[in-house]
Amino acid sequence: MVRLREKATELGLPFGERKKTYNSRLAQELSFWAEGKGKGELFHKAAFHAYFAEGKNIAKIPVLVELAASVGLPAEEAAKVLSKRLLKQAVDEDWNLARVMGILAVPTFVIDSDRLVGAQPYNVLARFVEAHGGRRTV
Fold first, then answer.
1. Are 77 and 98 in contact (CB under 8 A)?
2. CA 133 to CA 55: how far, in whole Å?
């Protein structure tokens, strides 16, 4: 937890006094749904803040439904997606692909057969992309 706190501070990310670790599986399922609704980034940021800064239990359906509603997603539909586990298979497929690719950490950036593992400063990520033919557009 100390290393994670140091990295969050280094990157300017919020990090509160979290007492417990909660399973993020349902949050991953709801993220798939939010992405399909065009609100994936907003939902990811809300879930990150809820978990790491506020210490909320993102394994609880009511917490996730509240987060979805907070970014403008329909709460009733979010509850249905979670209670019926409508995106369980999609997340299972992503997890299986990660296993096949040997990905063991989040985030992991993969281009061709090269990997960059862990939260990295922008300049490190930019160099990784540029080394594989990417160009800056800004």
1. no
2. 40
